[in-house]
């Protein structure tokens, strides 16, 4: 139950902050509603968030063992989010899997290195988003890839804690320059979870050390109020997606396979930017009440990930990270790939 407990802590903390911002602080509420979304009572969104979480938890508790054949099919289907590039890469990955090669185990240091090189090269060749804000969304896909590779490297690498701490500091600087606070959080999640499992003697310090990424994120956001506005607005977007998507969904799978799902959600409400939509926003928006099937599957993913420490750190980190921006095909690809390559390994958690 360890994975569900940790995820629940993040989930209910996020939900509590979102309800506080929307209900109990008039100044925050006015700022959130000023963007033009329906400012109706958020009970509907809250009920659906709790209902989907209950189904998610059921999937975790039942922990049905997903066969490698099903994971391979899911991996191939998700790759059509970016056809034909991702699809060709998915075929290559499945060939590697059939050959019995586990790249997660063999190349974690390479993943850490590539995660450093991607943003560094982009900042040199294209520019730095912190200095040119117009570059922010131009580089977002590559920066997310770099952050996910950093998570994989952190989870599977046998580097010492000292080296991992140094790398986390470097990644913090790189993603700070990219202006994406959520990517800073993602890297710290993998670092803290890995430290929690590998170094029990340091567990008592982790709560205090978590203030470091918290202060960084607050600083990048422009203050605590800005963080609460972001969280509150994200949940308001989720509420409106629920309102528009009942009973059978609005996008019918198009959101999951979109190359820019957050831009797609924003355009639904007449905006030209990107809107984050909460962890269960995509299942609801795509499939309505049938989105509980995807919620159950996500819970099963988390349960299956506990087969070994590396997959557990990767999957749990990606799911907690997705609480705010929401689930998309790219994140799901890495979750399914992690499970696929861990399915033949013994339980060493």
Automatic annotation (TrEMBL):
Q: Which InterPro entries match?
A: O_anti_polymase
Q: Mark the transmembrane ranges.
A: 6-24, 36-58, 70-99, 111-131, 137-156, 168-193, 205-229, 241-259, 279-302, 314-341
Protein name from the UniProt record: Oligosaccharide repeat unit polymerase
UniProt KW Transmembrane keyword: yes
**Alphabetical UniProt keywords:** Membrane, Transmembrane, Transmembrane helix
Which Pfam families does the entry link to?
O_anti_polymase (PF01901)
